Amino acid sequence: MENANTMSDHDILITLVATVNEQHKSLLEKMEGVKQNIKDIKDVDLKEIKNGTHERIVALEIRVASMEKLRDETNYPEVVKTVRNNNEWISSFKISWKTTLFIVSTATAVVTFILSFLLQLSNLLKLH
Fold it and tell me: Per residue in 28-56, is it b (16+ CB within 10 Å) or e — as a string?
């Protein structure tokens, strides 16, 4: 029984090794194809491309270079700190502005009430 299991394990391992070897060869062939494609792409003279691709590639390279330069020059911790400070200031300003509007509106209402009361009182006094 043990001999049958050992033989079966041995057959499975042989099949596994053969399959892995086939997959490995297939992968190596695909990688060679990819390498050849990359080499072919590198060998193409971009100036010979007539459909504007060369100009688009050059423009893209310039944009990428400028973005990388900006990325390298930006001090992100300082930017984050500044944005947080600005957000706090905006929040504080909104609260102050709402408070000021409330006080001014209340004062305007009180003054309007007093003036209308005084006008009505003066009209009453003129009638008598």
Answer: eeeeeeeeeeeeeeeeeeeeeeeeeeeee
